[in-house]
Amino acid sequence: MIRTYSGLYVDPLDIRPEQVRIRDIAHHLACFNRFCGAVYKPINIASHSILVHEIVEFETNDVQVRLQALLHDATEAYLGDVTKWLKQSPQMQGYRDAEDKAHGVIMDRFCLPHELFPIVKEADRIAVTFEAQQGFRDPNWHTGMPISYAELTEREKAAIGDHDPFMSWYYAKNNFLDVFYELWNAYGEDDDEA
């Protein structure tokens, strides 16, 4: 069991829809850092989620797609962030199963499809590339990694705009919530408990 920011006790392996609260998600994601904290200044997951949303918004006004982009890493609010290379290892099958289950519950809670839209997956790749370059201060940060990352195109750089990957946890949390409620209201939902 974990205790969430709002005071709920949640089993991360068996999350219930009524336990999923956007304020918990925003707060937790703002307090977790990416890249196992290895970058020279912290990059929190809420900031990353906002960036993925901004990249998607550059390409489409579709509210459903944009909302899914913002929430694409919401499971990490309950399960924590595990670096991609470890998460993909055979030993982490149990974590991946828990993540898949939590993802389904969260997507259902916010009336979104489980399968990530291709544009969201691509925006996530762009965001990782940008954040790693900024955070490691090394354009060749991925040398020695099992996967190589392509250079950012001019269009991808335009989609990123002037995004600050190092925003404070407090600013990231509030920005995340502002974007969420703007999208949630446009999505036609009026659930105050979101």
Describe this structure in words.
- This protein has a single domain, classed as Orthogonal Bundle (Hypothetical protein af1432), CATH 1.10.3210.10.
- Helices cover 53% and strands 2% of the residues.
- It is built from 9 helices and 2 strands.
- A hairpin with a 5-residue loop joins strand 1 and strand 2.
- The longest helix is centred in the middle third of the chain and has 19 residues.
- The protein is globular and about 45 Å long.
- The mean pLDDT is 91.
Quaternary organisation of the protein chains: single chain
Instruction: Please summarize the sheet with the most strands.
Output: 2 strands, antiparallel
CATH class identity: Mainly Alpha
Strand content: under 5%
Q: SSE order, as H and E? A: EEHHHHHHHHH
**Class by helix and strand content?**
mainly alpha
Give the overall form. Answer: globular
Strand order of the largest sheet: 1-2
Give the end-to-end Cα distance, rounded to a whole number of Å: 21 Å
Average pLDDT over all residues: 91
Corresponding CATH architecture: Orthogonal Bundle
* Radius of gyration, taken over Cα atoms and rounded to an integer in Å: 16 Å
**CATH level-3 fold name:** Hypothetical protein af1432
Helix content: 40-55%
Counting DSSP H or I runs of 4 or more residues, the number of helices is 9
SSE map:
Layout lengths: L1 E2 L5 E2 L11 H10 L13 H15 L3 H8 L5 H4 L4 H4 L5 H17 L8 H19 L17 H7 L8 H18 L8
Antiparallel strand pairs: 1-2
Structure, briefly:
Helices cover 53% and strands 2% of the residues.
